Amino acid sequence: MPERMLRFVNVPQQMPAKRAVAERRRDFREIYRIFEDREAATQASRCSQCGVPFCSVHCPLSNNIPDWLKLAAEERLEEAYEVSSATNNFPEICGRICPQDRLCEGNCVIEKGYEAVTIGAVERYITDTAFERGWVKPIRPRRELDSSVGIIGAGPGGLAAAEELRRYGYQVVVYDRHDRAGGLLIYGIPNFKLEKEVVLRRRDLCEQSGIRFELNCAVGETIGFAELRARHDAVLIATGVYTARELGGPGVGLPGIVPALDYLIASNRENLGDHVPDFVSGLLDARGKNVVVIGGGDTAMDCVRTAVRQGAKSVKCLYRRDRANMPGSMREVKNAEEEGVEFIWLSSPEAFTGREKVSGVRAMRMHLGLPDASGRQSVEPIEGSRFTLKADLVIKALGFDPEDLPAMFNEPALTVTRWGMLKINHRTFMTSLPGVFAAGDIVRGASLVVWAIRDGRDAAAQIHDWVGQQAMLAVAADD
Ligand SMILES: Cc1cc2nc3c(=O)[nH]c(=O)nc-3n(C[C@H](O)[C@H](O)[C@H](O)COP(=O)(O)OP(=O)(O)OC[C@H]3O[C@@H](n4cnc5c(N)ncnc54)[C@H](O)[C@@H]3O)c2cc1C
Ligand code: SF4
C-alpha cells in the first residue's frame, strides 16, 4: 500500500538497526543492517516534500532526493533507482559512507523539532535492491567512438568519469598502480563501513560496460606519462593524495610507529584474503597490543575501529583539539566510543619512548586559544601537563598531502598550487597541459567520495566537449 508523505509528525526517525557491539567488535562486517522493505518506505514517507529542498542543495551531486524518497515511499523502487542513479554513479556507496550529518541530512528542514529523514540509508536500500533485482545494467553506449581516454587512478573520481565517458561511447582505459580497482574505497575505507563486495560489484559492472583496466601500472614508473598521453586523445588524472603528514619529536623513528594507510591497507588486504607479510609478522597487526592512534579525522576513526576488531588490548585516540572541533564524522566517533575506544581530547604527542621498539607516547595537554585568520582556534600547550600513555603500536593518522606529480610524471609543465594540488581551470577541468584534465582529491586535497564522484562526472562532460572541439578543428583544418 503506497505511503503518504509528510509523516515526520507521527513517525519517528529510525536508522537501520546497528549490530550489537559485542558482535560487531569481533568481525569486519558492516555495522548497519539494511532496511526491511516496509521500514524503507515508512522512513522515506517522513519527507516533507518542501519547496526548497536544502538536502539536494547540500548534496554535492545535487541528488533529486525528495523525488526518490517519494517513489520509495510509494514502493516504486525501480523508478526510485532510475532517478537516484541519474545523478550518482555509486549511490549505494554514498548511502553508506557520506557524512550525511554534514551534508544532506544535516540540512533536512524537518530536523528542527523532528529528526532528519534517513536519506543515506534509503539511498543505499534503493540501490542494493536494484542490484538484487537485476535492474542495474552495464552501460551500452548508443554508438562507439574511435576516440579514447586514459584515466590515471581507479578511485571513485576516476571510475565515475570512466562510466560517464563510456556512456558517450569513448574507449576508456583506467590505469592504477594497485592490483585492484577502487582506490581508497578498496584499500583505505574498512569493511565495517563499506564491504568490499559492494566495490567489487561496481568494478565488475565497469568491466562489463567495456571499461578496460590496466592494474599494477604506476604511471611515471611502469609507463611514462608522455607515452600514456600519446596513446589517448585525452587524459584524466585522478590519482588522489597519498603523502602522509609526519609527526616530529624524539623517538618518532622507533619500530612500532606506523603510517595509517600502511596499517589500513594491510588490514583490508588481509580481509580480501591476500598474504600480507607485515601483518603476519605482527608489525601491522594490533592483536594483544596497547594501541595509540594520533589524529582526529576519518582515517583515525577507521584505524581505532580496525584495531578493536583485530583484538587490541586497549585502543586510545589522541587528538589535540576537542570533540566539537574534530574533523571526523560525529557518527563515527560515537560508533568508536560504543566499541570501546577511549578518546583523549586536547592532547598532543611530543615524544615516543622505548629502546628497540616503541613502548609509550609522551604527550602534553593543550587548550584552545583565540581563532586565527581562518577562524579556527589555535591550540596551545599547557605547561607542566605532561603524561605518558603505554603503547606497543602507534598509528600516525595526521592527514595526507599530494605527491609531487610534476616530478613523478617527469612533466615540469604540469602546474600545481602552493600546496601541491593540480591546478585546473575550474570551468573546464583542464590542467596546464592541453588535453590533460584532473579530478578528485588531487585537485581538492583530501576530501570525500561524493565530491570525487561529482568531479569525475563534471570532468567527463568537459573532456567530451574538448575532444569534440578538437575533432571540429581538425575537420576545419582539412577543408
Ligand atoms: C582511511 C580513509 C577513510 C575515508 N573515509 C571516508 C568516508 O567515510 N567517507 C567519504 O566520503 N570519504 C572518506 N575518505 C575520503 C575518500 O576516500 C577520498 O576523498 C576519495 O577516495 C578520493 O577519490 P579519488 O578518486 O580522488 O582518489 P583515490 O580514491 O585516492 O584513488 C586514487 C587512485 O589513483 C591511484 N594512483 C595514484 N597515483 C598513481 C599513479 N602514479 N599511477 C597509477 N595509479 C595511481 C591510486 O592507487 C588510487 O587507486 C576516506 C579516506 C581515507 C584515507
Ligand atoms: S550522495 Fe551523499 S550527500 Fe548526496 S544524498 Fe546521498 S548520502 Fe546524501
Describe the overall structure.
The protein is an alpha/beta fold and 479 residues long. 35% of the residues lie in helices and 15% in strands. It is built from 18 helices and 16 strands. The strands form 4 sheets. The protein has a 5-stranded parallel β-sheet, sandwiched between helices. A 5-stranded parallel β-sheet has the order 6-14-7-8-9. Strands 10, 11, 12 and 13 form a 4-stranded antiparallel β-sheet that branches. Strand 11 and strand 12 (377-381) form a beta hairpin. The radius of gyration is 23 Å and the shape is globular. The N and C termini lie far apart (64 Å). The model has no long low-confidence stretch (mean pLDDT 95). The chain binds flavin-adenine dinucleotide and iron/sulfur cluster (SF4). Flavin-adenine dinucleotide (FAD) is lined by residues 97-98, 152-158, 175-178, 183-184, 188-189, 193, 218-220, 238-240, 264, 298-299, 302, 408, 440-441, 447-450, 452.
Summarize this entry quickly.
This protein has helices at 21-24, 37-44, 54-57, 65-73, 77-87, 91-97, 119-132, 156-168, 184-187, 196-208, 225-231, 260-271, 277-280, 298-310, 330-338, 405-408, 441-444, 449-478, and strands spanning 148-152, 171-175, 212-214, 234-237, 243-244, 257-259, 290-294, 314-318, 342-344, 347-353, 360-371, 377-381, 387-390, 393-396, 400-401, 436-438.
Structural topology:
Layout: H1 21-24, H2 37-44, H3 54-57, H4 65-73, H5 77-87, H6 91-97, H7 119-132, E1 148-152, H8 156-168, E2 171-175, H9 184-187, H10 196-208, E3 212-214, H11 225-231, E4 234-237, E5 243-244, E6 257-259, H12 260-271, H13 277-280, E7 290-294, H14 298-310, E8 314-318, H15 330-338, E9 342-344, E10 347-353, E11 360-371, E12 377-381, E13 387-390, E14 393-396, E15 400-401, H16 405-408, E16 436-438, H17 441-444, H18 449-478
Parallel strand pairs: 1-2, 1-4, 2-3, 4-16, 6-14, 7-8, 7-14, 8-9
Antiparallel strand pairs: 5-15, 10-11, 11-12, 11-13
The structure holds flavin-adenine dinucleotide (FAD) and iron/sulfur cluster.
